[in-house]
Amino acid sequence: MAHEEDPLEHERASWKPSPGLAVAVPDPVQNSQLPPHRERVTDQDPAAMKRAVRTVYTLFYLSVAASIWAVAAYMIFPIEDGQVTSIRHNNLFIGLGIALALLAIGIGAIHWSKAIMSDKEYIEPRHATRGRDTTREAAVKAFSDANEDSGFGRRAMIRNSLFAALVASVIPGITLFRGLAPQSSEASPHAGDPVYLLSHTMWKKGMRLAHDPSGVPIKASDVTLGSAFHVIPEDLAKVAHGEGYLEEKAKAIVLLMRLPVDQLHPEPGHEDWGFDGIVAYSKVCTHVGCPVALYEQQTHHLLCPCHQSQFDVSHGARVIFGPAARALPQLPIEVDDEGYIVAQSDFHEPVGPSFWERH
Known about the structure:
Blueprint (H helix, E strand, L loop, with lengths): L6 H8 L26 H4 L1 H31 L7 H32 L19 H16 L5 H14 L1 H10 L13 H6 L9 E3 L16 E6 H4 L7 H8 L1 E5 L19 E5 L11 E3 L4 E3 L6 E3 L5 E4 L11 E3 L5 E3 L16
Antiparallel strand pairs: 1-2, 2-3, 3-4, 5-6, 6-7, 7-8, 9-10
């Protein structure tokens, strides 16, 4: 089939500009340069500069006062009585103090940068990024120039007030977090001691292991190979769900499993802490305290769903992956005359997350 030639294509290919025809060629983009520098009021008037400096350090000291007020409000408006009005006043005045402290730091820092720090424009030429002998000197000069431009080294009132405001701003948070810790009293002399609290749970010699939450005791014959039971102390199921119940339950929760005896490799001295392949370990992860409740039947691994720490039940629940720092505490168990699984004692080490005082 013959190809029909496009007449326009031939015309476009043969076109050339006429000698007298001027063809417009766009000029390259010109550098617009920096606009003329306009001095600020504080650059022109020393009195205005002094006012700006006073404003900045006044804001920083206002932040200090607001942080102190937040701590005072925590004490002036206690919430121990449980009244809604007390809680409302506590939250309101502490929140106002913290908000004002942080707001004053922010406004002061912005005003400092806009009215006091150097306002000159600089152009930094590009250069090779490879290291060279003058790098250290250039870095020192850069810090020196920055200090000179900001006035950080010269303006002692601003510098000291900023340090004071930053230090004071964390005090309300420390105060509030400190109030979350249980306080010791004559009735509870160990309430403020985490080592004691996490070293003692409801488990004691002869206490039966029971299903969570029904409280039905568990017999050894109920635990088949590959099974896993969520367990609490039998006595806990009989306790009224009042104040302190959840705390006691959180420390005492246990996971009960049965493995083939030939696949168990207990730690030295723990050989008699199980019964016929049945072992019990704390469910509280030793990383940050999440419940370790996912059991892989084939690998005998326990998985914490929060941060993926894994523990090998066949080797004393030691850590094999993840951020947890130590193995899960093991609950020594045995079987009583009626065939029920009972605890030999309490845990022999603190349960829960690792902490520096736990020695």
